[in-house]
Amino acid sequence: MLSAEESEEKIETDPFEKMNRVVFNVTDSIDQNFLRPTAEIYSEYTPLFIKDSVTNFFQNIGEIDTIVNQILQGKPKLAAQDSLRFLVNTTIGLGGMFDVASRMGLVRHDEDFGQTLGYWGMSSGPYVFIPFLGPSTIRDVLGLPLSWYISGPFAIEDNGTKIAFSFLDVLETRERILAAENLIIGDRYQFTKDAFLQSREHSVKDGQVEDEFLSEFEDELFDLDLP
Asked: What is the pLDDT of residues 205-225, one digit of tens each?
């Protein structure tokens, strides 16, 4: 049974829990019956070099979002490094399909507008579960449109191409999460929420946070690029 202090903290971080759980259950049902089986087929029958190329391609596009936010966070050296990463992988790496930059020692980073708002002191606000997008917070929701515009399919004019691009992005992300699902214990909703909130805090504080949960699962959690 939760203590009074724990109950108060739970209400503050998740005041919309009833609604969130309904959205989570509906989304999870669709995922388990459609998206996960599709991701499993993709994982089993797609050659590894193709999967790696798809992952590299989308991560390379995401570098644009990272660079912009590094500038906004006052990190010019990292912005310059990741600009070089983007240039190398886009050219020598054939549009980002090959991560040549990492082999050259240029470490990949990940920043978005939600992290930038947190960096400058904006609190995360209540936890929300967005249909088909997954766990988030009010702060991250505010940053999503800008991140989507910079590194998403919005610049693609052809609707068919835009839909195919978006679906492949979702499928690639879902395939990478398959292995991490084995970590889930107990209440799926609660576990997903806790993992997301703690991983986001870790990202906003650039890893300068102590947490036993994250220490145990950091390799699995921080390779997922949770939304």
From this structure: 876 655 554 445 545 444 544
β partners of residue 128: 136
CB hemisphere CA count around 78 (13 angstroms): 19
Is the entire prediction scored with pTM above 0.90?
no
Distance of CA 68 to the CA centre of its chain: 17
Q: In terms of C-beta distances under 8 Å and separation of at least 24 residues, what long-range contacts does 172-175 make, across chains too?
A: 172/51, 172/54, 172/55, 172/58, 173/224, 173/225, 174/31, 174/35, 174/36, 174/38, 174/39, 175/39, 175/42, 175/43, 175/51
pLDDT in tens, 54-71: 999 999 999 999 999 999
The residues with which 134 forms a beta bridge, in sequence order, are 130
